[in-house]
C-alpha cells in the first residue's frame, strides 16, 4: 500500500488528488486506511475521506495545513514525529512511527504512520506521501498480552520450586529464576536449556527415557531424581510436567515443576531404618497448584477479622490441577473447581491463624503449614506457598502451591516415638550399649552398662573407661581402637570387661560408624555382648554345624535355601554333583541355566508368584 499511495501522489497534480474516488481511494476505504499528501513547496496537506474519518471529522472539513494536523497530535507525541522527519531529512527513504491523536469528541486514538519523502534534483524537499492506520485496539491487545506474560513470569518466580516450560519436542525453553540455584545450567546455540548435565549420572538415563516417553505419548511426566546444586552437591527432586494441547488435540507445550523432596527422602529413610537404601522405600509425593477468586474484592485496609470473614463468604476455588484434586481424594480438578473456601478450611483457631498470617504478611506466605480434611474426612497436613494479587489496594485473588507433607509429619511423629522407644529399649536390653563422637569420646551409655560396671557416664569422662578393661588386654584394646576410630568401617573386638564386683567376663564389642553426606564419621554406636556362655558352647555349635553339613551333603535329594525375595544363596553338595555347577554360577537366579528350555518360562513365572505367597508350594520340572 505504501508503494501504491506514493506512486499515486507523485504522479497526480495536487489539486486533482482527491477530486474523484479512484481505485486507490476505494481500496483505502475498504482497508480503513487514511491517505495523505503534503506539498512541501506550497504547504498544502491533502487528506482522503478515510483520513478524515480516522480523525473524527467530516470529509472535506480539514484545513489542509501542517499546523491543522499538528493540532490533532498529543503534545508528548509531536516531538517524536518531528524527530522522525528530521532523521529522514534528505534521505528520500520510507519510515514508520506511532503517535496518538485526540479527536474533536475527546477520544484518543493511536495511529500507525508510514510515509515516503521525495526530493528534487536540487535536493530540496518536494512532497511527503503517506498512510495512517488506526491501531488503537491492536495496540491495547498487545499491551494486555504483555501484562499477562509478565504476571505469569512473576507468579512463576514467586513459586518456591523450579518452574519450566518445554516445546512440543521436549526441549526446555524457559526456567524461572530458581534456575540460579542449580549448577552450570546454560543455553545451547538454539536458545534451549541444556539440563541433562544436572542429573546425577545414576539417574540420567532413566530420567531422559521417562521424559521422552511422556513427550511421545503426550502423557503426564513424573520422575524422582537427584539434581546437582550450585554448591556441587546433589539433592532429590520430584519433577512433574503436563502437556498443553491445541484445538486438534496435539501437545504444543509442556509446563513443569521440580520440587525439592530431599528432606522427605531423608525422613522416610530414618523411619524405615535403611541408611544405605532409603530412596528405594521413599513414597512419591506431588504438588498442587491452585487459584482462589473473590466474588467481591477485599480492601486491604479493613481489619483482619473483617477480611477473614469476607474470604469465607466470597472466596471459591476457580482453578487447580489434578494433583491437588488427588490430595483431597478426588480424581480430577473439575471435581474441586467451584468449591467454597470453608469446605477446605472449616472456621477454627488454626484456620484463623493461617489467614491472619497471610494478611499481616502482605498477602503472601511461604512454607506455611495447614491442616485440612479430604472428602472422606481424613486429616492431611500441607506445606503451602501463596501470594495474593492486588489492584488499587484491593485483594482480587490468590495463587498458591501446596505439598502434602502428611507422611513427613507422621514420620516426624514416628521419629519422636522411635527416640522414646530407643531410650526405653536401650536401657532394658541385655547388651551394654554406648555412643561416642567421631573420635571415640563416649557421649552416652545405657543403664545396663552402668549397672554392670558400677560406673556412671560422669565416671567415664573422668577416666573410668580404662578401669573397666583387664590390665592384660588394655594396651591391645587401645592400640586397636586408635586405628579403628580413623576408618569409616564397622569393626568387632573381643576383650574382657570388669564387672562392678571385680569379676571379668568376656564380651564381644561391635561398633558401627555414623557418617554424614560427605562420608565423614560423626559418631560411633557400640554394643558389648556377654559371650562367656557362648564360648563354653562353641564346641557344641561347631559339632552341630558339621553334622548339618554332613547330613545335607549326603541327602539323596537336591536341596537349596533362598532369602525372602527368592535369591538362592545355598545349595547342598548333591546339587553341585548332579548339575556340575558351582555356587558362583547358581546363586540368585543362576538356576535357570540348568532348566529345560521348554519349561523355563513356566517355571520362572510360577516361582515369581510363589515367592510372594507365605505358603508351601510344589512344582514338577526336568533338570
Structural description of this entry:
There is one protein chain. This protein has 623 residues and is α+β, with helices and mostly antiparallel strands. The strands form 6 sheets. It has a 5-stranded antiparallel β-sheet, with helices on both faces. A 5-stranded antiparallel β-sheet has the order 7-6-12-11-10, sandwiched between helices. Strands 14-13-17-16-15 form a 5-stranded antiparallel β-sheet. A hairpin with a 5-residue loop joins strand 8 and strand 9 (193-194). Helix 8 packs parallel to helix 13 (406-426) and helix 9 (304-314) packs across helix 12. The longest helix is centred in the first third of the chain and has 23 residues, at 136-158. The protein is elongated, with a radius of gyration of 41 Å. The termini are far apart.
